[in-house]
Design brief:
By secondary structure, this protein is of the alpha+beta class. It is built from 4 helices and 11 strands, in the order E-E-E-E-E-H-E-H-E-E-H-H-E-E-E. It has a single domain, classed as PK beta-barrel domain-like (M1 Pyruvate Kinase, Domain 3, Beta Barrel), CATH 2.40.33.20.
């Protein structure tokens, strides 16, 4: 079973991600209180504009990236340091990536995966840990558009719309 492992938001660009037990999602906006829902994320003004309502990453992707880092004698990343809003337990990064262009559910909230969340230097520079781009390649997660408003909680199921 795929489920929400953890939920994170940052109220300002560059601030530490804070862990939440639940979060309110607003259709077409994102997670209440998060920097991107407020339009003040580091990449909010990017051109061309991208849908940045919410970002998700597979826990197994973080774990396998950290295994590579440990094997090289490098510092690992906490789930919050990946700077994604939702960490999903039980799904592989490859299966999460396959959702781009498709709808899925977090609990009862419907979303559409819009694009891969390609790793950038921001998590490395903010955490003071190197190698984020190379280690998280193909494991960076996805961005999604929130299609329904409502609340999600840690432990809620993550379901492909075809399985719902």
């Amino acid at each position: 079973m795929f489920k929400i492992h953890s939920i994170y938001i940052a109220s300002q660009a560059g601030h530490l991600m804070s862990k939440r037990d639940s979060a309110r999602l607003t259709a077409g906006v994102g997670i209440e209180g998060d920097r991107y829902a407020l339009g003040i994320g580091a990449f909010s003004g990017s051109i061309p504009a991208k849908i940045r309502d919410i970002s998700l990453i597979a826990l197994t992707g973080i774990e396998s990236a950290n295994e590579e880092l440990v094997a090289s004698g490098l510092k690992t990343y906490l789930p919050s340091e990946a700077r994604r809003n939702i960490v999903i337990e039980g799904i592989s990064p490859e299966d999460l990536n396959q959702l781009v262009g498709k709808e899925f559910f977090l609990g009862s909230i419907r979303l559409r995966a819009t694009e891969l969340c390609v790793p950038c230097e921001r998590p490395a520079s903010l955490s003071g840990k190197p190698n984020f781009i190379s280690t998280f390649k193909n494991r960076g997660g996805i961005r999604a558009q929130v299609l329904d408003s409502g609340e999600i909680r840690v432990g809620d199921q993550f379901k492909d719309v075809l399985l719902a």
